[in-house]
Write the structure tokens for this entry.
Amino acid sequence: MTLLEIDGLTKRFGGLVAVDDFDMTVERGEIVGLIGPNGSGKSTVFNCLMGIYNVTDGQIHFDGEEITNDSTHEIVNRGLSRVSQESNPIDDMTVRENIKLFTLPNSILAFSGGASDEEIAEYAARVDIEDQLEEHPGSMPHAGVRRLEIAKALATEPEMLLLDEPFAGMNQQEITELAAKMEEFREEGITQVVVDHNMGGLMGLVDRIVVINNGDFLAAGTPEEIAGDNDVQEAYLAGEVTQ
Ligand code: ADP
Ligand code: MG
């Protein structure tokens, strides 16, 4: 069953066409990789999905309902959550307070004053940072801060998680550990879209890969199909997509 459907998505910034008539669908339960070179429009697609940017043209449906240009608050409450490419924790707050803040965009949780301490500990435990709840993000290593960013997204109780370059800046062990967490999220029923500028880290993790190039759909298929796709190979040879 289709959970996310993007039809003809176009986003212009003045004369710059960042996303150009882009189509993509995600089935419930899938982990889909969205790859493309830097500047190809991946983060812009996520910003349009989250209602951060108003779309220039096209439609977005989530769980059968149109969400195009809905407010971020409405979109989060429908079950979409995004881990941004850049971490933005509040250093003056503890890890616990940072996570709690993110339970507030969810109307149901906000109604009761945000998540309880037990609920926050559970969100943290899903990314193994439950022992750091009283620490400040500034004292955590990069991979720990990235886990905090994921815990914040989990705290909105998403059906679908959008992860923008989640493995960037991580060593191989940290990548392997995070990929295992993403498998656990899948088992918990969370559908995921993972953006990366190369496909190496996504092999073995994702069910399907969609390739975006110059804001436009280039190819879609299993990781094996994409690795053997002539158009994608040409883009690789042109240095537009790095492996
Ligand atoms: P990617 O995430 O694939 O690296 P982006 O979606 O960040 O690419 O960017 C796609 C294009 O849109 C780039 O040319 C970028 O400079 C441009 N862009 C993204 N956000 C903005 C913005 N807020 N204002 C103007 N241009 C933007
Ligand atoms: Mg980006």
